[in-house]
């Protein structure tokens, strides 16, 4: 077993935390009576023990000048400070905040006759609402303490209660427990660091040295001894984590790897401080890398560093060669070149890698379409990169196929920009008329034209203009283009327009037409809402011009609800029955 002689008088972590939580008089009254572990958290137990050891039962002061009114008693300027002094002498004052109004109230409630003592509200009224002025009248220290003074007193008290073995992790556990179970909690570790700068400075400012250093060093030594007894010649980070997790063999729960690293900075420095040679505590992989670095290390000039960076070497590789970290390598490169040069160089390296990747995939597949599919880029982008790397294909047998693909690209104009196919207004009108003749209709929608023009070419070899090109050439609207071609605009081309608002006449006419259709259709026994939706879809499918001309069932229901304010039927069934009565033909159908 590992020797645990670092804190021979201090108890274990669990019992230490219990003792701290039970004695912590800095906390306010408990909101919950017990901890999850079953330890009753009596925050004021230490204070209560002090009271019963030197309890002072007060007798009501005799003052002939006061006059009693009911159960309350008026007190003068000479008698009020006496009660505050008696409360402080009885041990009710908070060691961190002084005698607070809540402490005085607790002291008053402990007396046999609380009505014979002035209340907090009476004292505040007498001294103009200022508790500090009342304390000064009683010669009690009531100066407003800063956060540093309060937190320093808390640290000193906790260190005394833990027998001088207060660690950072123990304080974190006590602070978290106080926030969960107490009304007035201890400051967190972040607040402590914000006030003092660090945990070590906070401990030194209140008069005791932090135990982390010796504690962590002893933990590292014990772990190294346990590691050597198990046949391992080096204490690596992985080995230390495994030892630390095994609480039965390693009794240093506070000395985790994260806390060790946070205290010392690096693992190598921690091992050196513990008296463990870097060769024993270091990782074998790091030793091999260090030996390679020492063998290849030499002085590199700035030009050589730039050349290595231009060849694609990362900061880690450059740092390994010159024997520094990657951050130091980045700083050195920053001093050599400007930010604009590094940006352009990085862009050039990225572009060259992109070209090499396209060339490699093309060599493997031999097809531009497959390259575009594999790399998720456009065909023109693949051809552009292959054209930029054309010098690499002088002896390649696929060079002829590349030239063939490049010849199929768009012809460049004099300015070097790719030019799209241009269409005259007469040509776009002719394309629209051809699409309408194909469907044998005078109504043409965008969807119908897209289906017709897909994969079709004009007589001169050009592809049919897209619907977007036609819109651009005709005031950017499909309806204007159809009107120029002598056609009617389809339903899906009217999406940009405002939704049509149906009046009562349109809704009534549509429902009457539906009822006439339902009478002639034997498969529709009841004119329900679903039957109306089926009839509307069938009408729009048979006649595309009816798209948007018939109200939906939701529109009809909204219209029926609007009739409620006028005392008219406000649902579908009542509306259908009303229309049946107004129709000349009689209907014997059962209306749902």
TrEMBL record:
This is Uncharacterized protein. It comes from Cymbomonas tetramitiformis.
């Amino acid at each position: 077993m590992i020797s645990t002689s670092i804190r021979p008088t201090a108890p274990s972590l669990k019992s230490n935390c219990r003792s701290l939580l039970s004695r912590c008089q800095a906390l306010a009254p408990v909101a919950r009576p017990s901890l999850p572990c079953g330890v009753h958290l009596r925050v004021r137990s230490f204070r209560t023990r002090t009271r019963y050891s030197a309890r002072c039962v007060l007798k009501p002061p005799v003052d002939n000048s006061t006059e009693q009114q009911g159960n309350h008693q008026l007190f003068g300027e000479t008698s009020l400070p006496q009660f505050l002094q008696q409360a402080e002498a009885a041990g009710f004052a908070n060691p961190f905040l002084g005698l607070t109004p809540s402490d005085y109230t607790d002291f008053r409630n402990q007396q046999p006759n609380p009505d014979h003592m002035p209340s907090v509200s009476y004292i505040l009224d007498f001294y103009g609402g200022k508790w500090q002025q009342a304390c000064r009248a009683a010669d009690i220290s009531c100066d407003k303490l800063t956060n540093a003074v309060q937190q320093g007193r808390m640290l000193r008290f906790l260190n005394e209660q833990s027998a001088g073995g207060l660690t950072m992790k123990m304080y974190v556990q006590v602070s978290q427990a106080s926030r969960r179970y107490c009304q007035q909690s201890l400051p967190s570790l972040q607040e402590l660091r914000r006030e003092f700068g660090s945990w070590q400075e906070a401990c030194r400012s209140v008069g005791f040295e932090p135990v982390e250093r010796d504690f962590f060093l002893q933990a590292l030594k014990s772990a190294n001894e346990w590691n050597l007894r198990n046949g391992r010649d080096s204490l690596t980070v992985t080995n230390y984590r495994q030892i630390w997790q095994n609480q039965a063999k390693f009794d240093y729960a506070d000395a985790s790897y994260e806390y060790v690293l946070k205290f010392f900075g690096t693992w190598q420095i921690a091992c050196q401080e513990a008296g463990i040679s870097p060769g024993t505590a270091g990782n074998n992989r790091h030793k091999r890398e260090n030996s390679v670095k020492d063998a290849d290390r030499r002085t590199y000039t700035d030009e050589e560093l730039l050349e290595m960076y231009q060849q694609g070497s990362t900061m880690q590789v450059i740092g390994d060669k010159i024997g520094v970290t990657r951050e130091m390598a980045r700083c050195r490169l920053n001093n050599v070149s400007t930010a604009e040069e590094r940006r352009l160089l990085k862009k050039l390296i990225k572009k060259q890698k992109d070209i090499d990747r396209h060339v490699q995939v093309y060599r493997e597949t031999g097809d531009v379409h497959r390259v575009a599919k594999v790399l998720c880029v456009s065909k023109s982008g693949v051809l552009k990169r292959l054209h930029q790397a054309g010098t690499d294909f002088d002896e390649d047998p696929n060079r002829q196929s590349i030239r063939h693909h490049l010849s199929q690209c768009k012809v460049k104009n004099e300015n070097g920009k790719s030019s799209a196919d241009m269409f005259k207004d007469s040509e776009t009108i002719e394309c629209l008329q051809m699409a309408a003749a194909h469907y044998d209709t005078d109504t043409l929608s965008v969807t119908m034209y897209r289906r017709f023009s897909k994969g079709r070419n004009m007589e001169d070899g050009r592809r049919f203009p897209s619907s977007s090109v036609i819109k651009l050439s005709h005031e950017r609207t499909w309806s204007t283009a159809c009107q120029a071609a002598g056609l009617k605009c389809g339903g899906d081309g009217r999406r940009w327009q405002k939704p049509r608002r149906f009046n009562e006449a349109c809704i009534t006419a549509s429902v009457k037409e539906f009822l006439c259709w339902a009478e002639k259709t034997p498969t529709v026994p009841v004119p329900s809402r679903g039957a109306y939706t089926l009839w509307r879809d069938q009408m729009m499918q048979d006649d595309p011009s009816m798209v948007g001309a018939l109200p939906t069932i939701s529109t009809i229901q909204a219209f029926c609800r609007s009739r409620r304010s006028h005392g008219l039927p406000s649902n579908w069934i009542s509306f259908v029955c009303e229309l049946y009565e107004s129709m000349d033909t009689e209907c014997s159908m059962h209306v749902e």
